[in-house]
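Re: [ENG-882] Designed sequences occasionally contain unexpected residues at chain ends

Forwarding the minimal case from QA. Structure tokens:
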């Protein structure tokens, strides 16, 4: 796993310059000091400075090209050691490069770099006849290299866990936002479809009567006015949720089954006779379930007004111990064995499924449509 691309800014450039500069100063000053303390080793010269700066300056590109920087430090450190310069801070650049390379997810390259430096150091000394280190020192250096690699792995694992947790939180936020958008889209569809359907029917009636029986067109126009006003209020409430505004806009209470009589009255003004029957013990329902039940009935009646050639519909509500059962029938006629499912039926089914319930739509023997929703309590 590699780190995301970082957009360079003045602050990031300054930090990238500061690390190589600090390591370069420490390496050069420390190595010259070590040369004075170890007169039996190779004296400090210009080539030693070149090797020190090669690994240190390369750290500037550590974030963008960690593997190449790692190999630059491996080569400079190995040559420095085999030329028997005094032991000093030459190893700092290599340690930083290995640690960062493994932490950024280039694990294989990091371990290969560790092994290459260790094997090159031990094997090179044997080839060049430099046998000043015993078995104990060789094993100690190998152990230190292993500890460095394992520490880098621990930090990498911690970084991956942190990134995975952040990614999970982000995905959860996106999922919740998607569910909220879907819910709002369903609300918009139900509100717009219902009221526009009523307005369309009443407008057709008014146009039909305005010339022949103008006195009978007035109720249809009044119904259009009421339906459009209610649609605007509901839409303003939903848009207010989208904007998350705190303004005191006029809003309707959350629509529930207590608004069912008003819904039936509006629908009847569109020319559809609606009968309601309630069975069981009516009682307050959870807000989400109450709203979903109302929207299912509303969408079912809207479908009847828009698509079914029906004159009446029946809404049955059964309050059971375990579930609320809704059944909406109409007396329309259709030759199709199964109803064509559009946004309305699929939206109702999604509402029921979200609550752990079910929703079915099928034709009755007379050709009408029956919507049955079972919503667990």
């Amino acid at each position: 796993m590699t780190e995301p691309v970082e957009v360079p800014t003045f602050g990031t450039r300054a930090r990238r310059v500061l690390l190589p500069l600090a390591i370069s100063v420490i390496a050069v000053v420390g190595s010259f000091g070590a040369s004075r303390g170890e007169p039996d080793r190779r004296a400090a010269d210009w080539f030693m400075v070149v090797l020190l700066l090669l690994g240190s300056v390369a750290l500037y590109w550590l974030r963008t090209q960690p593997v190449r920087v790692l190999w630059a430090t491996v080569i400079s450190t190995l040559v420095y050691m085999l030329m028997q310069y005094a032991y000093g801070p030459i190893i700092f650049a290599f340690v930083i490069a290995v640690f960062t390379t493994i932490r950024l997810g280039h694990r294989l390259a990091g371990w290969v770099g560790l092994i290459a430096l260790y094997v090159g150091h031990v094997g090179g000394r044997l080839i060049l006849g430099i046998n000043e280190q015993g078995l104990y020192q060789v094993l100690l250096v190998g152990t230190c290299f292993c500890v460095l690699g394992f520490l880098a792995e621990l930090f990498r694992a911690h970084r991956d866990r942190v990134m995975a947790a952040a990614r999970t939180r982000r995905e959860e936020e996106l999922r919740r936002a998607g569910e909220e958008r879907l819910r709002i889209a369903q609300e918009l569809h139900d509100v717009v479809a219902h009221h526009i359907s009523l307005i369309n029917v009443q407008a057709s009636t008014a146009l039909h009567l305005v010339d022949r029986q103008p006195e009978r067109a007035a109720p249809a126009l009044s119904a259009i006015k009421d339906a459009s006003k209610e649609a605007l209020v509901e839409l303003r409430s939903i848009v207010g949720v989208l904007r998350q505004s705190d303004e005191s806009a006029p809003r309707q209470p959350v629509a529930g089954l207590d608004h069912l009589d008003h819904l039936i009255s509006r629908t009847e003004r569109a020319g559809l006779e609606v009968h309601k029957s309630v069975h069981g013990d009516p009682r307050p329902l959870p807000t989400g379930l109450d709203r979903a039940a109302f929207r299912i009935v509303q969408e079912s009646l809207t479908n009847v007004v828009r698509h079914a050639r029906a004159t009446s519909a029946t809404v049955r509500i059964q309050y059971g111990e375990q579930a609320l059962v809704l059944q909406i029938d109409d007396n329309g006629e259709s030759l199709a064995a199964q109803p064509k499912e559009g946004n309305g039926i699929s939206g109702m089914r999604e509402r029921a499924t979200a609550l752990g319930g079910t929703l079915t739509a099928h034709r009755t023997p007379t050709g009408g449509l029956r919507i049955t929703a079972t919503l667990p309590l």
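QA comment: On inspection the terminal residues look reasonable. Residues 1-5, 245-253 have pLDDT under 50 and may be disordered. Proposing we downgrade this to a documentation issue.
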